[in-house]
Amino acid sequence: MAVVKRGPYAKGTAKREEILSVALEVVAAKGCRKASNREIAERVGLTQAGLMHHFASREELYQEVLRARDIRDHEMFFAPDPTIEGFLAVIAHNAEVPGLVRLYVEFSAEASIPEHPAHAFFLERYAWLRDGLSGVILRAQDAGVIGPAVDVSAAVDLIVAAADGLQLQWLNDHTVDMVARLRRLWDGLVAVSHAA
Amino acid sequence: MAVVKRGPYAKGTAKREEILSVALEVVAAKGCRKASNREIAERVGLTQAGLMHHFASREELYQEVLRARDIRDHEMFFAPDPTIEGFLAVIAHNAEVPGLVRLYVEFSAEASIPEHPAHAFFLERYAWLRDGLSGVILRAQDAGVIGPAVDVSAAVDLIVAAADGLQLQWLNDHTVDMVARLRRLWDGLVAVSHAA
User: Which end of chain A is more exposed for a tag (fewer CB within 10 A), N or C?
Assistant: First the structure.
């Protein structure tokens, strides 16, 4: 599947990767609000106009950093079939990449206003994540782990909400064990699902 | 307990209240990132320097909007003793004040970076909230609702995380029933707490 890229396209792709990586470093160090296109452009040796040639806006740039992360996470932890252990592995991995957690927490909050250019991206991402986690629950139900009394949609909302909220907590206090907390939530969902 | 305020102090207090209220309207309409001190100042009939006389910075202003909300919520729903129903009532009330939810979600995310001027405010607020919710769980335990097998600290983290994450979801989709989701979480925590 590996494609050997050459010529100007390969150069463009390499530059694009470099920009995504530097954008992440700048956000990790300064936060989303203080991070500037000017600094990102300078650090990759481009003018701001040159940077905008690769990404039309700050919002597109951040969105693409997060999209690249999702693709990697999906390949590493979720393929071929998502499981709760795969999801917890993504969360455990998050604790290794604080810059991405910071970008995700800040940028998803900022983009919650419908007029935001990345609003549609997050809605689409959320639908994708819901879909994956619904599959996790249905497969756990098939396996008899989760009982019949479960509202899949509500359970998914809750798992995503807890994962989002825990990332914010973890940014404030790196001793918060996100995985242990989510495992407890899962145990609670399992317990309630077997109730009469 | 009502104090009749007069003279310049009363004037200052009224202006302060007006600023907090207008700041909230501007954030509700534009989001935290696009809201500007200039617009807030204009709408309350002050120069930006005049606005800064009341609040030293954008960050102090937003922080004080949230602090005023917490004081009101606490009086309305939590005093004298916090209960889970009181907490759920705060969440239900949030759905009536989308501007506050937007400000809270965006500003708490932005402030997660340790260098942020409101970072200490959110840490302090979090400790206060943890304290209230720990009391909720311990009293529920005394009443026999929550069983012995509960890690109070972990349960509190999870409730706050879910409430935070659900507010973000609700901003994106007002049909998300935050209270029903949190009640399910509580039921799960109750179920697991009675496990052998």
Answer: N
